[in-house]
Design a protein that fits this description.
The protein is mostly helical. Helix content is about 80%, strand content about 0%. It has five helices and no strands. It has helices at about 1-10, 15-50, 55-85, 90-155, 160-170. α3 (about 55-85) runs antiparallel to α4. The longest helix has about 60 residues, at about 90-155.
């Protein structure tokens, strides 16, 4: 907006001065909004990124907030001079223009960082959901296996038919095979 206002200022013969003043005012308002609102928000998102373990994104949020605040501090007084006295602004208009451009570029970078943080948050939610589904499947499989094992242990094994016949007789079960008797070969 500062750039448009400056271009209109330079081509004053074809455009009305009131439009340049309005655009300068809108640019100053945008600079105030970005400096006063995005700076604390950037610091908060930096802390949030630290908590989430995204160190590089956290540093970029901090730097973005510092740059927006710095250019806001430089650009706001210059923009006030341009808005109050557009005809005699001169070099102040160029400083306001560059401060506004750098703040705008950093604001776009800030929005890209917000999208990066949003993407990583979306990934974390999807990862947690798939982990919960996997845990539910593993728990179901473990329960099914334990039920099968309990069913196998509760069944009484049936004795083979031969042993059943031996047990049902009243004869004593021999503990060992009888020893063969020695035959006398001396006769």
């Amino acid at each position: 907006l500062f750039f448009l206002a400056l271009m209109i200022d330079l081509t004053r013969g074809t455009q009305p001065v009131a439009l340049a003043t309005r655009l300068s005012s809108a640019g100053a308002l945008t600079l105030v909004i970005s400096a006063l609102m995005l700076t604390p928000f950037g610091i908060y998102l930096s802390a949030l990124s630290d908590w989430a373990g995204h160190g590089p994104v956290s540093v970029q949020f901090r730097l973005s907030a510092i740059i927006i605040a710095l250019f806001g501090i430089i650009g706001l007084p210059c923009a006030a001079v341009v808005v109050l006295n557009p005809a005699g602004a001169g070099l102040t208009a160029f400083v306001a223009l560059w401060a506004g451009l750098f703040a705008a570029i950093e604001t776009v970078h800030f929005l890209v960082l917000v999208l990066r943080l949003t993407h990583s948050g979306h990934w974390a939610v999807q990862n947690a959901r798939s982990a919960m589904e996997r845990d539910a499947r593993m728990e179901e499989r473990s329960k099914r296996r334990s039920d099968e094992l309990a069913a196998r242990l509760n069944r009484r094994p049936s004795a083979p038919k031969f042993h059943r016949e031996v047990w049902e007789r009243d004869e004593p079960v021999p503990l060992a095979e009888p020893e063969p008797q020695a035959t006398d070969t001396t006769s």
